[in-house]
Design goal:
The protein has 200 residues and is an all-alpha fold. It has 10 helices and no strands. Helix 1 packs across helix 4 (53-66). The protein is elongated.
Length: 200
């Protein structure tokens, strides 16, 4: 009878709870018992709905991208490249210091320290961070081609620089930096935006 019972929990709600646990404790620091306690479901229900811990973590990362980190997608909708970068970095300063969320960023901190058993999760996070940098590089390449950036601007270096600042914002937030301090860091970083006449 139990096997045919309909799912008795809200998927988004339990993913919210799992997200908070992974965010606070990292992938490796989170056990199945931590997850079942926070999610309010038993282990068979967790495995039945989400598969193993690694599969759940990937679902949580997608949920994170649609929730606390949706500012990233919104930043890329800005009409000009400088607006993309500025909104991305200021968005990070806001998102990593939200009072209703753990400090820092799940994708930056979630798998920084990982043993061999957590390699898959670490690789998933590395891949997602690399995809973010690649997306920014493409946007900056388009900006140079469109004349938004000077002809001698290097999209590779700019993307790497601004992503490094972006990740640094998250690390600083996790260490206790305030929102105001991080916004000032972003303002300083934007001073590196290439100046000079754009190619015509």
């Amino acid at each position: 009878m139990a096997g045919g019972r309909p799912r008795a929990f809200d998927v988004d709600e339990v993913l919210d709870r799992a997200l908070e646990v992974f965010w606070r404790q990292g992938y490796e620091g989170t056990g199945i018992s931590d997850l079942t306690r926070a999610m309010g479901i038993n282990a068979p229900s967790l495995y039945g709905a989400f598969g193993n811990k690694e599969s759940l973590f990937k679902r949580v990362l997608d949920h994170y991208a649609d929730g606390p980190a949706r500012y990233i997608r919104e930043a890329f909708a800005e009409p000009d490249a400088r607006g993309v970068v500025e909104r991305l970095l200021h968005g990070a300063a806001d998102a990593t210091t939200r009072p209703d969320c753990p400090p820092g960023c799940l994708t930056v901190q979630g798998g920084l320290a990982a043993s061999a058993g957590a390699e898959a999760a670490r690789d998933e996070l590395t891949s997602r961070r690399a995809a973010g940098e690649a997306a920014l590089r493409l946007r900056l390449e388009k900006a140079r081609a469109d004349g938004e950036l000077p002809a001698d601007a290097d999209p590779d270096d700019l993307a790497r620089y601004f992503i490094t600042v972006y990740q640094g914002v998250a690390v600083q937030a996790a260490g206790g930096a305030t929102r105001e301090e991080l916004h000032r860091v972003v303002d300083l970083a934007m001073g590196a935006w290439p100046a000079g006449p754009a190619a015509g």
